[in-house]
Write a structure and sequence with these properties.
This protein is mainly α and 657 residues long. It is built from 27 helices and 8 strands. Strands 5-6-8-7 form a 4-stranded mixed β-sheet, sandwiched between helices. Strands 1-2 form a two-stranded antiparallel ribbon. It has a two-stranded antiparallel sheet with strand order 3-4.
Length: 657
């Protein structure tokens, strides 16, 4: 379970956990909102911080220390995500079973499969790692696979890879090479996030993403117009997604609006001006609620996004896409064509001409031909993934169109129709990053792939769980041998996807060998005892949020550790992250030389002026400061003349005013 991972690997260190912990502690220190930025004193957090705020509230209510609450929160997020995946799939299957007078056993079983797909299963890279470490596959094969650093990993003949952090590569299976230069691409998925333990917005938002899908499903199944209280709940949830992880808001807003459009179509019949008015009114009111309910956040939020840019000179290779989503795509392909076949059959397209219902057959036939031709053309120019996605999205859109024809009103409440909507949105997210990305400080598609693939995993995972039910022998009576064969073919992919969570958990926790603890600061007891003692003193003796001076340095390092563990704002923590959040380095760039001057210059007057200018009340001098700035005795004497020594242990001195 996630709790076992956390108590065997609890340290809040490495990757971006220090940043997350700094935000949590900074919010706990804040006396007003927007909360203080612990890494840029005098400024507020310029980030979507709602998830950290909720964890901070739970920390206060529970009374546990923040270093324990951090790990408990990761375990809670895992449980909520798994519960959300279970609930959605359970209800989709139960609705389908209800139409066939089924019981609760199948919905429960496939609800468990939905939880597995969303929160537990990994991509297929874990199985490839085992193949490589066993020595299977030729050098040419691994060069073709081209998952970064796999080909150079050690071949030991063991069943578990032994190189350091081998499990990290599962979040980097898409390898972009532009003009001979590597470009980082992130393709994280939920279990990787829970294993890594970074409490980032995309993880904090995950339970609420699933809640938004549940609310969209309620809208889709609604038998009457939406009431104001229901609109308010939708606004709270969807607007909260903007505050939690702003990338998610347009995705799930779109799904909710389409779900409502289908519901209105069911209530009022064919497309009319009234239908358009009602759907437009719903969308405008919902967007308004998302903004108004969280207006203080939107007013203070400053994004580094710089518009949309085209993706040039690179496309995702099909086999790398399938390493990421292959298990789900195996189900999605027959699901799309099955939905299309059923829709055509229900609408009379497969019947003899004299028995066919009135349909825009010519237009539909033209669209089908265009989709197939375009898909083949993409394949001819070796854009295999684009061709596959064009085919699936095109056929899925046609299937959705035929399923909602007035001649089949029952399909407008069908679980299959809703799942088809989720499938199309998931595929469109992965399709879009082949052509455009949201411009940021990195100016590559790295973050766009990351954010869109993460949501595509959720959407395709739910779709695949329901699709496994629908296409299996338990989902229908027709052609049971073919249905059984489809499920049998899926078993190897399912097992391959489970290789990653099993082996990566063992590697990341060191085989569960360490003493169990949820204290995320316990690792400081080995080699950094003086820092730990100083941090604990500051947490116990300093009220409010006075500014503390400490060394600044590169991101993903030990720099900023005092502000991280106490929440006290410092002049500058990880400067690179401030650049990412704010889109410019003007203020951080001013502060770097100020910090250096304070730690290197013995000038008493200059130091006093700078301390006043930046409202510094505490100065921290520890091993990191001494090594970074070669702090001399005259500098220490300068601080002693201006301030009092309020804490001293080993190499750590804290001066206070």
């Amino acid at each position: 379970s996630e709790m076992c991972i956390r108590d065997s690997n609890p340290e809040i260190a490495g990757t971006e956990k220090p940043m997350d912990f700094a935000f949590l502690n900074g919010i706990l220190r804040s006396e007003y909102f927007p909360p203080l930025d612990p890494w840029l004193s005098g400024f507020a957090i310029s980030y979507y911080y709602f998830g950290y705020l909720m964890v901070a509230v739970l920390t206060r209510l529970s009374g546990v220390a923040s270093e324990v609450a951090f790990n408990l929160a990761i375990a809670l997020l895992f449980a909520l995500a798994a519960s959300g995946g279970f609930s959605l799939t359970y209800n989709l299957v139960a609705r389908h079973q209800k139409n066939r007078n089924g019981g609760a056993a199948l919905p429960t079983a496939f609800g468990g499969l939905g939880a597995l797909f969303v929160a537990v299963m990994g991509n297929l890279e874990g199985a490839l790692e085992v193949m490589h470490t066993r020595g299977w596959g030729t050098a040419a094969f691994w060069e073709w696979v081209d998952v970064k650093n796999v080909a150079s990993a050690p071949v030991t003949g063991a069943w578990i890879p032994t190189d350091n952090w081998w499990w990290w590569r599962a979040s980097r299976v898409v390898h972009d090479v532009v003009l001979g230069m590597d470009q980082e691409v992130i393709d994280e998925f939920p279990f990787f996030s829970f294993l890594l333990g970074d409490m980032h917005p995309h993880v904090l938002a995950l339970p609420f993403v699933l809640l938004a899908l549940g609310l969209a499903l309620n809208v889709f199944w609604s038998t009457r117009e939406i009431r104001w209280v229901e609109m308010l709940v939708l606004g709270v949830c969807l607007g909260g997604l903007g505050f939690l992880n702003s990338w998610d808001l347009p995705i799930y807003l779109f799904i909710c609006v389409v779900a409502y459009a289908l519901a209105v179509y069911r209530w009022n019949g064919p497309l009319t001006r009234r239908w358009l008015t009602e759907v437009g009114y719903f969308a405008v009111v919902l967007i308004g609620l998302c903004l108004v309910l969280y207006l203080p956040f939107w007013i203070s939020f400053r994004s580094q996004a710089g518009g949309v840019a085209p993706v040039l000179l690179v496309k995702t290779r099909l086999h790398q896409y399938l390493i990421m989503f292959g298990a789900f795509i195996y189900v999605v392909i027959p699901l799309v064509f099955y939905a299309l076949w059923r829709a055509m059959r229900a609408s009379g397209v497969t019947e003899p001409p004299e028995r066919r219902a009135q349909l825009p057959r010519t237009l539909s036939a033209v669209v089908v031909i265009l989709v197939v031709v375009l898909s083949l053309l993409m394949a001819l120019v070796r854009l295999y993934l684009v061709g596959l996605l064009v085919l699936l999205i095109g056929m899925g859109a046609i299937a959705l169109f035929w399923r909602v024809r007035p001649s089949r009103p029952s399909e407008l409440t069908s679980s299959t129709t809703f799942v088809l909507l989720l499938t199309l949105v998931g595929l469109l997210l992965t399709f879009s990053v082949e052509f455009v990305y949201l411009r940021d400080v990195f100016d590559t598609r790295m973050n766009t792939v990351f954010k869109f693939y993460y949501q595509a995993w959720v959407l395709l995972g739910i779709s695949a769980a329901f699709g496994t039910y629908l296409l299996g022998p338990w989902g229908g009576r027709g052609n049971r041998p073919l249905r059984a064969l489809l499920v049998v073919g899926f078993v190897p992919l399912l097992l391959a996807g489970l290789v990653y969570p099993v082996l990566s958990t063992y590697s990341k926790t060191g085989g569960f060998a360490g003493p169990p603890t949820l204290d995320g600061m316990a690792h400081l007891q080995s080699g950094r005892e003086d820092d730990l003692a100083a941090v604990r003193w500051l947490r116990e003796n300093v009220d409010g949020a006075p500014v503390i001076l400490e060394a600044t340095g590169g991101s993903y390092t030990y720099y900023g550790r005092v502000s991280v563990h106490t929440g006290l704002p410092t002049l500058l923590g990880w400067g690179g992250h401030e650049l990412q959040w704010r889109g410019n380095y003007e203020e951080p760039g001013k502060r770097e030389p100020v910090i250096e001057t304070l730690y290197t210059s013995p000038d008493l007057e200059r130091t006093a002026a700078l301390l006043d200018e930046y409202d510094v009340e505490y100065v921290y001098v520890g091993p990191l400061e001494r090594n970074t700035y070669s702090v001399s005795q005259p500098v220490l004497t300068k601080f002693e003349d201006l301030m009092d020594v309020v804490f001293q242990q080993g190499e750590v001195l804290i001066y206070g005013r």
